[in-house]
Design a protein that fits this description.
The complex is a heterodimer of chains A (622) and B (78). Chain A is an alpha/beta fold and 622 residues long. Chain A is built from 26 helices and 17 strands. Chain B is globular and about 30 Å long. The chains are: A alpha/beta (622), B mainly alpha (78).
């Protein structure tokens, strides 16, 4: 069950769209107390290094993170000590060992603006100097603290002495800020573990007048008003949520008056309101485009509609429908209660209910789903389609810290999964079905090209996950380069398509023993014997490094009961040293080993890559 | 905003059970009266009364009732 499911809905309501800033400010302490009653909170350590006062930022960020099931511990720099704390290695910061460093700087912290009529070449030098100043901080944080960095870009200066020329002239302050922001963005594109908190956008959204207030600046050195601080914290929490893999995965949509105007069963295909010829039809068209965009970047789409199935499907043959039937990975049109249907969708897609967002124009349906499935996010979108996308945007349900290739092919996977299901139905024997899939696996030590996907999988896989340990991308990168670890990733393909990178294993080596700190697999490939292929690869590496004993760790959680028997099924024996909430299992590596894999062929390229990565990571004395 | 409504809001700001504050309480004796609650009070005065109350003015207040009087007087003079 999602952490939020245990909360009173009224508590979370204050933190959801439309956000009532006054309510949050007033109820701050009450909200915090309620949110801390949740169980299964994910701990994280965040250092806030401020170019202005950050007390309010910390207070609000804490609320929004707790609402996402993340419990932060904070380090706060002194006022405007963001650079000194890093440059002079403040021991309090170093001892804090942050997972995340948030650099809360604003335009007030730009050290030099161009002079009037300054030559372009000198302006460019100023840009370089400012970048060098920030880059030296970022590099030191990455190198010494190993933390993920979240860096504000810059909001715009409050005053414009040159008027509109501030934007167009190279020496204009607006122009200069936008150039710096472009440089920050360029750095983010070329560096992992570095994310931008886009306060330029936030300041526009909040409105410049409400974003910055002289009174708060001169009295408290708050670079943001309380209203702006709430907006910043909300956005920041969405970034952290994505880093910890807590973003939603699937958008479940009603059809009539949600994706088109009218009721297809009553009005018929040609009377639906959809398309540019009608003001409301254009709003439905735009919402469909927005949804299609979500699908393109990896959000799974599903339909949950009270309709006859054939009528419902016909709607997508409307000439103006941007969404097509094949865009949906699950399609349920029936007369059953919607909570029941959404449960079926979650089962069919192999995802948790807490990965789902449900959109329906009907408030009664929304209320029913919200009440019976508290894990499902049910935003109050109202009944006006022109506001649906805005609500989804504000809630930041699908925030991602990176778009990787596997995200783009996720819908393809779910579509080909339907073909797999059809194929499976033709076989009375499951093993014949597995053989018919013609599966191939690429298994090897972590490669730089896969680190983003590996981190993503580590932070969002809950069910087939033996320990549910979470790692930041920095930690994954460090482990990948550390010869004291054996790492494995696994990709699986079959005749219907590529399932992508679906399994990750991390083991720590000590003498002749390896302890498996992490072993997970995407639920996409359950019951495909991919875990056998991973185990075969692990045993091969153990044999190559003279490791005789594999210790498996199982830490039960509310979501991983499916792997309770995992080590027993692989021939491990229970061993002593277990503690409450932690089981230890032991496997003695035999001199000769018969592979468990029966239906998965390991590709030669992967074997070569793995061997080469292995030889590179094994110390010469071994 | 009535006197009672104001007191209920202050109860929430200071994480006290509804109905705790009566107005005569001394601010310096309230455990959660700190810089954050002070900023919250300023923000709420803006929201509720559309006035800006400065920290310097708040320093002159001794009791919860003084805070209400301050917000109301600023509101009537603006």
């Amino acid at each position: 069950m999602a952490p939020e499911a245990t909360l009173q809905s009224e508590v979370l309501k204050a933190l959801r769209f439309p956000i009532a800033v006054g309510d949050i400010l007033r109820k701050r302490l009450v909200l915090k107390k309620e949110l801390l009653k949740q169980t299964n909170l994910v701990p994280t350590r965040i250092a806030i290094l401020g170019g202005s006062t950050t007390t309010e930022v910390k207070s609000m960020l804490e609320l929004f993170l707790l609402a996402q099931g993340i419990e932060p511990a904070f380090y706060e720099s002194g006022y405007n000590r963001y650079a000194e704390d890093v440059e002079f290695e403040n021991p309090d910061l170093w001892n804090f060992k942050p997972n995340i460093v948030f650099l809360h700087t604003t335009w007030h912290n730009i050290s030099e603006f161009p002079e009037l009529l300054e030559a372009e070449v000198e302006v460019e030098r100023r840009v370089r100097r400012e970048m060098a100043r920030f880059e030296s901080l970022w590099e030191k944080i990455h190198a010494e603290l190993g933390a993920l960095i979240i860096q504000n870009n810059f909001d715009l200066p409050r005053l414009r002495p040159l008027g509109n020329l501030e934007a167009s002239e190279s020496f204009g302050s607006v122009n200069f800020v936008l150039r710096l922001n472009a440089e920050f963005a360029g750095y983010a594109r070329s560096h992992s573990r570095f994310l931008i908190n886009d306060i330029l956008y936030l300041s526009v959204q909040v409105g410049q007048a409400a974003w910055f207030r002289n009174s708060y600046w001169y009295n408290f050195h708050m670079a943001l008003s309380p209203t702006a601080t709430v907006s910043l914290a909300h956005n920041l929490a969405a970034i952290v949520k994505s880093v910890y893999g807590k973003s939603k995965k699937c958008l479940v949509l009603d059809l009539d008056n949600t994706l088109w105007g009218g009721v297809i069963g009553d009005d018929g295909l040609h009377n639906l309101i959809l398309g540019k010829d009608h003001p409301v039809g254009e709003a439905f068209l735009d919402f469909q485009r927005y949804v299609k965009g979500l699908k393109r970047r990896g959000v799974i789409l599903a339909v949950c509609s009270k309709n006859d199935a054939e009528n419902a499907k016909e709607g997508f043959s409307h000439p103006d429908s941007v969404l097509k039937l094949e865009d949906f990975s699950a399609f349920k049109a029936n007369w059953n209660p919607k909570p029941e249907t959404i449960r079926e969708i979650a089962t069919e897609l192999n995802i948790g209910l807490d990965s789902i967002v449900f959109i329906d124009d009907n408030p009664a349906e929304r209320a029913l789903v919200a009440e019976q499935l508290p894990e499902v996010a049910v935003p109050n979108v109202g009944s006006d389609v022109s506001g649906f996308a805005e609500v989804l945007e504000h809630e930041r349900y699908f925030e991602v810290d990176k778009v990787v290739q596997d995200d783009l092919s996720r819908s393809t996977y779910y579509s080909s999964n339907a073909q797999r299901s059809t194929c499976q139905a033709r076989f009375s024997n499951y093993e014949e079905f597995l053989a018919s899939l013609e599966m191939t696996a690429e298994i090897g030590a972590f490669l730089p090209v896969y680190l983003e996907r590996i981190t993503q999988l580590i932070n969002k896989t809950n069910q087939f996950n033996l320990t549910t340990r979470r790692y930041t991308s920095g930690e994954v990168e460090a482990i990948a380069q550390d010869p004291a670890f054996i790492t494995l990733y696994g990709r699986l393909a079959d005749k219907f398509g590529d399932n992508g990178l679906v399994s990750v294993l991390i083991g720590q080596v000590s003498d002749e023993t390896i302890q498996l700190d992490l072993w997970l697999m995407s639920c996409r490939v359950l019951k495909r014997e991919m875990e056998f292929a991973m185990f075969d690869a692990l045993v091969e590496r153990c044999q190559a490094r003279g490791i005789s004993k594999i210790v498996g760790v199982y830490i039960p959680s509310k979501k991983n009961s499916m792997v309770a028997g995992h080590y027993a099924s692989l021939g491990f024996s229970p061993m002593g040293g277990a503690s409450e909430g932690r089981e230890l299992w032991c496997y003695h590596v035999p001199p000769t080993y018969s592979p468990r894999t029966r239906y998965i062929r390991r590709t030669a390229e992967a074997l070569l890559a793995a061997a080469s990565a292995e030889s590179a990571s094994v110390p010469s004395e071994v | 905003m009535t006197h009672d409504e104001f007191l209920l809001q202050m109860d929430e700001i200071l994480d006290l059970p509804a109905g705790t504050l009566r107005g005569h309480e001394r601010l310096e004796e309230l455990p959660n009266w700190d810089s954050t609650s002070l900023i919250t009070f300023i923000a709420l005065a803006e929201t509720n009364y559309d006035v800006y109350v400065s920290p310097g003015q708040i320093v002159t207040c001794s009791t919860v009732a003084d805070l209400l009087r301050l917000a109301q007087s600023e509101s009537s003079s603006s």
